[in-house]
Amino acid sequence: MSRAGAGLGDIVVGADGWAGLGGRRWRCALGRGGITTAKREGDGATPAGRWPLRRLLWRADRLARPATMLPCAPLWPDDGWCDDPADAANYNRPVRLPYAGSHEALWRSDGLYDVIGILGHNDDPPVPGLGSAIFLHVAEAGLPPTAGCVALPLADLLALLAAVRPGAAMRILP
Fold this sequence. Notes:
Blueprint: E1 11-13, E2 18-21, E3 24-27, E4 35-36, E5 46-47, E6 49-58, E7 72-74, E8 79-82, E9 94-96, E10 103-105, E11 115-119, E12 135-138, E13 150-152, H1 154-163, E14 169-172
């Protein structure tokens, strides 16, 4: 996996399913649609590019605050994320549940969102239809594909987040 073009301290993710930072590497799960340079809502692909790590959310009822220098906030049962391209005002933004438009509930029973790194994909400003809810999160056992996110086993995700510095980004290579 090449680090060419990566910013200092960026997490580099390759199509081979490895994430690297500072000489360390971790296996990761990527979108079932592979990595794409033409991300579209619902395509199941992980978007190629350099995406800032905006902040971290975590389930404080299940885990201690992760050791990281990223801005952090606990998740709440009414936290959601709008994935509805028809909702121009809230598309690819956090929302409070219940919510009338299409959305993801961030408070999940399966543990996949016990830790969520919010990536700056299609958020400045969001363009409806170009992809939403692209996160760095906990992987399912066995690392099956995601719906477009990057996912690592919890222990590896926590180790990665402990090594990340403010201003870091995730660089996903096509």
